[in-house]
Amino acid sequence: MPKIFSDARKQSLYKIIKQNCINLIREKGYKQLNIRELAKTTGISTGTFYNFYNSKEDLILSIMEESQHNLENRFFKILECNGKITKSEFIDLYSFFSLRDEKNIFRYLSRDDLTAILLRTERNQSFETIRTSMKKNIKYIDKPKKNINFNAVINFIQLVNLCLQNSDLLVKEEIESTVKKLLENITEQIFEEEI
Fold it and tell me: How far apart are the first and last CA of the chain?
């Protein structure tokens, strides 16, 4: 018989499960993430875990969606203050998200991990979905280009992801500046040149 938790305890457990999942993926990687170990770390049984999520992929998708939602919230907080996103705000926002946001699970997943997760959950994260999202958010950009090359933007985003996923192959002291350079390349594709 399933254990009954109060709503407050359920919400607390959702947060703890997600944080423990991020910690375990950061330490061991997605492939080594074990539900039994995650449940034990959280202080619940494996069966109780499955009362919260159907699978580790469902959990990770939930964390991915939360990461994306947190990024959007930061984006819209800037808009509340300034009305538009400037180049420097764009670079600062995405630098934080890519390099420092400890809850950004994308930092700890490889391309193969993401593909496996999306296949197992039958979700499609196509380039068209990314392109549509970018087109929607362009109206919030300060002085966007008239003809944005979205394919180039997607490629630079993928390069940022590849850089982070393969950081062990890069000179550690230069990772941050490399990511910022890639983000500058993205802004060159999106923003009009300043005169």
Answer: 68
